[in-house]
Write a sequence for this structure.
């Protein structure tokens, strides 16, 4: 990942909004004699600290009694300089604390390029437990966005437009179970959903929850109090066929009985 020159400073906009872009700081490459540096130098973040203080007070104003719990953040960054820069930024916010991956509320993963190895890293970090990821990346995400969301990605920041304010703001949003994805990424997710719906599910007469349309019809009628004979008459099937439909749903979804099957359909939003 490209990094800022060491003497580059982090500044907030005049408005002091936590969501406003920095005037000079980004993750764009800045060559120095030592290579590329990503600087959030200690002692040079006065304005950033004022912005963070204002943001924290706003968030804490709705919390009564004891102090609000800190959001625990784990950093997974490919190089020490970038890790130090992001860690320094996190340290400016008293509502955040750094921790290991196992205990983290938010895992920050920074990648120079987007590839299948990024998905492998997400899969490895999320193995055995549900994690919420914030990615700092660059490149074409179209082949990967659905898989990334599946593995727990809840926010993506683009390296060229990175700013400390957006970084802190996004950590707070993800830590509070929000999703921060740009309209273009949301559009990609919708396109992927429609592609699966039209090319995979619809030809097999399945819904997104793995039930066929007639299976949903049967469960809906059961939920409305009809017995098997009445359901068979309404759907123009034999009673034996209705029993087989219910059995197949229970077997495929690991359900214990008809009531459990109806409950599954309700929870899935199918009826």
């Amino acid at each position: 990942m490209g990094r800022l020159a060491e003497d580059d400073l982090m500044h907030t906009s005049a408005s002091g909004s936590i969501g406003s872009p920095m005037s000079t700081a980004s993750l764009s490459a800045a060559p120095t004699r030592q290579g590329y540096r990503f600087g959030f130098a200690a002692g040079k973040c006065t304005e950033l600290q004022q912005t963070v203080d204002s943001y924290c007070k706003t968030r804490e104003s709705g919390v009564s009694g004891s102090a609000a719990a800190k959001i625990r953040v784990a950093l997974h960054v490919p190089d020490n300089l970038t890790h130090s820069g992001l860690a320094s930024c996190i340290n400016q916010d008293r509502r955040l604390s750094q921790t290991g991956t196992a205990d983290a509320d938010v895992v920050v993963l920074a990648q120079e390029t987007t590839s299948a190895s990024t998905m492998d890293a997400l899969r490895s970090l999320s193995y055995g437990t549900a994690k919420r990821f914030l990615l700092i990346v660059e490149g074409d995400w179209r082949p990967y966005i659905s898989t990334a969301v599946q593995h727990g990605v809840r926010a993506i920041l683009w390296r060229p437009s990175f700013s400390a304010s957006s970084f802190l703001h996004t950590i707070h949003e993800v830590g509070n179970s929000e999703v921060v994805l740009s309209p273009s990424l949301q559009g990609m997710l919708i396109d992927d959903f429609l592609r699966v719906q039209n090319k995979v599910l619809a030809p097999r007469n399945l819904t997104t929850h793995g039930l066929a349309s007639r299976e949903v019809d049967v469960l809906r009628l059961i939920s409305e109090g009809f017995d098997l004979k009445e359901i068979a008459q309404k759907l123009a099937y034999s009673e034996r066929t209705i029993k087989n439909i219910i059995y197949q749903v229970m077997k495929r979804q690991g359900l214990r009985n008809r009531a459990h099957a109806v409950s599954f359909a309700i929870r899935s939003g199918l009826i």
About this structure: The longest helix spans residues 183-201. The longest strand covers residues 71-76. The radius of gyration is 25 Å. The domain at 31-185 is CATH 3.40.50.2300 (Rossmann fold).
